[in-house]
Design a protein that fits this description.
The chain is of the alpha/beta class. It folds into 2 domains: 194 residues, 3-Layer(aba) Sandwich (Rossmann fold); 164 residues, Glycogen Phosphorylase B (Rossmann fold), CATH 3.40.50. The chain is 40% helix and 17% strand. It is globular. The two termini are 40 Å apart.
Length: 384
């Protein structure tokens, strides 16, 4: 957005609180007025962090929290926020010749007067100016800590990320863990016929960026062993051409559908027999929660996030990283054993309902906001 008139931010009256919870009403207030949180995202066109940013901001909005969202210009993200009742400020978040972002950020902060500014991704955290507000950054990856030096606290979505930032020199008492949540609308399944997939064929669904970390090459190799299954890959990224070529070379292209970036994760999973998550490197893995919430059996590679989340053999099957043979064998076990499928689905749904719902995540964030503000005010009162 070029410099000029500042777009209006939403009134807290626009938000619809989640139920009539007096504790929640207290958590969205601060010193007798609405708590104000400015959310700043400078992400790319698509990705897990960008998707979760929209999910969390809208979830906090539904809970009644007064927020101002500032994003890098993106039609899809802007539409999703506006459709959810928020009007984002859009800025370029460019590099050397960007003379707009920082001045407008300062103006927005001066007018909105946030109690908390929460930044997402390296660029937003590095460009955010200092102020009287509490500066938080949300981390969902193993980023270099240099971009976050001016932050007061970091919010990581796994304990492993906390260990990463501490190893980089960040104080342990200023790193906190709040896991993601899954929020999928109940919906009809995507018709298999719409993607040229036989109704009686086992269907695997994989969700994620077409990036080396996601190990979709290993999943394609697993299809040469588990020859009954069709595969839908929902995601976009730099490896699309390479993965399409690999599918041709392996002779599995006729059973693979590259869908591009999709927003209908729930409808895709509703069509699936198995959700497969083969990442060789994965800090968290919201796809796991999506599978549990959608009541779909899960097979995942044992990277950091899945190792923390999944109880192997109870709510999902874990296989060694980069092992196509083991991945194919686990998929076959799930396809062939109805009892195993039912147990995995039931246990996964319980895990989701116990700790990874929207309400649970929103409450964790709001409580942390209040605790950190109280601790800062106490420290100021004590002169520390």
């Amino acid at each position: 957005m070029p410099a000029g008139p500042i777009p209006p931010y939403h009134s807290p009256a626009m938000a619809q609180p989640m139920g009539d919870d007096p504790d929640l009403r207290q958590l969205v207030a601060y010193r007798g007025r609405p708590l104000r949180v400015m959310q700043v995202m400078a992400g790319g066109k698509s990705g897990g962090a960008e998707t979760f940013f929209v999910s969390l901001v809208l979830a906090l909005h539904r809970a009644g929290l007064d927020q101002l969202a500032v994003i890098r210009g993106n039609l899809g993200r802007s539409f999703a926020l506006r459709n959810g009742g928020m009007v984002p400020v859009e800025l370029p978040f460019g590099r050397w010749l960007d003379f707009t972002t920082v001045p407008v950020l300062r103006r927005q902060i001066r007018i909105y007067q946030p109690d908390i500014v929460m930044t997402w991704m390296n660029r937003a955290s590095a460009l955010c100016p200092r102020g009287e507000f509490l500066r938080l950054a949300r981390l969902g990856g193993y980023y270099k800590i240099k971009n976050y030096r001016r932050c007061d606290h970091l919010i990581c979505n796994t304990p492993d990320l906390v260990e990463h930032v501490v190893a980089e020199g960040w104080p342990r008492d200023r790193a906190h863990v709040i896991p993601n949540f899954s929020h999928l609308e109940a919906t009809d399944a995507v018709p298999r016929s719409s993607l040229d997939t036989p109704e009686d064929a086992p269907l695997l669904v994989a969700l994620g960026r077409l990036h080396p970390a996601k190990a979709l090459d290993i999943l394609l190799r697993a299809l040469t062993i588990e020859t009954r299954a069709y595969l839908w890959i929902a995601g976009e990224g730099p490896l699309r051409g390479e993965l399409e070529a690999l599918a041709q070379d392996l002779g599995v292209a006729q059973r693979v559908r590259f869908l591009g970036w999709r927003e209908d994760r729930g409808a895709l999973l509703a069509a699936a027999d198995v959700c497969v998550f083969p990442s060789r490197s994965e800090p968290f893995g919201t796809v796991i929660l999506d599978a549990w919430a959608s009541r779909r059996p899960l097979v995942a590679a044992a990277s950091a996030g899945p190792r923390w989340l999944v109880r192997d053999g109870e709510d999902g099957l874990l296989v060694p990283i980069e092992d196509a043979t083991a991945l194919a064998a686990a998929i076959a076990r799930v396809l062939d054993d109805a009892g195993l499928r039912d147990r995995l689905v039931a246990a996964g749904r319980r895990r989701y309902e116990e700790g990874f719902t929207e309400a649970a995540c929103v409450t964790r964030y709001l409580r942390l906001f209040q605790e950190l503000l109280a601790a800062r005010n106490a420290a100021r009162g004590a002169g520390t």
